[in-house]
Amino acid sequence: MSAAQRQRDGEAICARLARWMDATASTNTDAAGSRPRPTVAGFWPLAGEPDLTATLRALDARGIPIVLPVMAGPGLPLEFHRWRQDEALLPGPFGVMQPARSQPLVPDIILVPTLGYTRRADRIGYGAGFYDRTLATLQKAGLAPLAIGIGWREGRIDLNEDAYRPQAHDMPLAAILTPDGWWPAEPPAWVRL
User: Fold this and answer.
1) With bands split at pLDDT 50, 70 and 90, how would you rate the model's confidence at 11?
2) Is 140 helix (H, G, I), strand (E, B) or coil?
3) What is the structure's pLDDT at 31?
4) Could you tell me where the beta strands, DSSP code E, fall in 90-142?
5) SS3 breakdown of the chain: % helix, strand, coil, rounded to 5?
6) At what angle do helices 3-27 and 53-61 cross, to 10 degrees?
7) How many CB atoms lie within 10 A of CB 81?
8) Do residues 64 and 37 touch, judged by C-beta distance below 8 A?
9) Is there a contact between 99 and 81 (Cβ–Cβ < 8 Å)?
10) pTM for the complete prediction?
11) What is the DSSP string of 5-74?
12) Beta-ladder partners of 68
C-alpha cells in the first residue's frame, strides 16, 4: 500500500468508526435517561497499521475515556491505562507507544489491531498472543468488552470454512472494521449491561 492509500483508507476507517460511535452514543441511555460513556481501548499504530489517533483524540475531547494497552510483561495479559491527548506516551516493548501506568481501567470497547481476518471475524494477529490472552482473562473475570478488529481490506483471507480454523486460544471478535465496511456485519450499538 502506498502512503497515500494508507492515509485515505485510514480516514475511511476513522469515519466509519466515528459514525458507529455516534450511533452508539445516541441510542445508549440508562433508566435515568442519561448516556453512560463507554471506556474505549484504542491502540497507537505501529508502522503500516491503521492510524486511529484522530478518532481517539476526538473521543477524548468529547469526554469519552480512552485507554491504551500497556504490556505488563511476557506471557501476561495487557493492562489498559487512561490516556488523554495532552499526555506524552512512552516507548514500550516491540516499539509500542504506551501511556504511563497511572490509571488502569477495564474497557467496554476494545479496538484490536488486526493483521489478517476471515469473513467470520477470526483475527490473525502478530503471534505473541497479547490480545487473545487479554480477552480470555476478561472473559474469565465475567467481563465482556465488545472487541472490534481494525484492519486493511488487504488483510482479508478468503478461505473456505475448512481451510482455516482458529486455534483453541484464539478469541473471537464481534466484527472487523475495514475501509470498505464491517465484517461480517456492523456490531449493534454498545450497551452497558
Assistant:
1) very high
2) helix
3) 55
4) 90-91, 97-98, 109-113, 116-117, 123-124
5) 25, 20, 50
6) 30
7) 18
8) yes
9) yes
10) 0.89
11) HHHHHHHHHHHHHHHHHHHHHHH---TTS--PPPPEE--PPPTTS---HHHHHHHHHTT--EEEEEE-ST
12) 81
Amino acid at residue number 166: P
Place of cell 474497557: 107
pLDDT in tens, 76-92: 999 999 999 999 999 99
- Residue 159 has a pLDDT of 64
Four-residue CA torsion sign, 81, 84, 89, 95: positive
- Cis status of the peptide bond prior to 184, with omega within 30 of 0: yes
Question: Any idea what DSSP says for residue 136?
Answer: H
Highest mean pLDDT (candidates 67-76, 114-123, 156-165): 67-76
Assign domain 3-28+37-162 one CATH number from 3.90.420.10, 3.30.1360.40, 3.40.50.10420, 3.30.930.10.
3.40.50.10420
pLDDT tens figures, 133-165: 999 999 999 998 999 999 999 988 876 656 666
Q: In residues, how long is the chain?
A: 193
pLDDT value for 119: 82
Q: Give residue 116's identity as a one-letter amino acid code.
A: G
C-alpha cell at 95: 516499539
Name the residue type at position 37. R
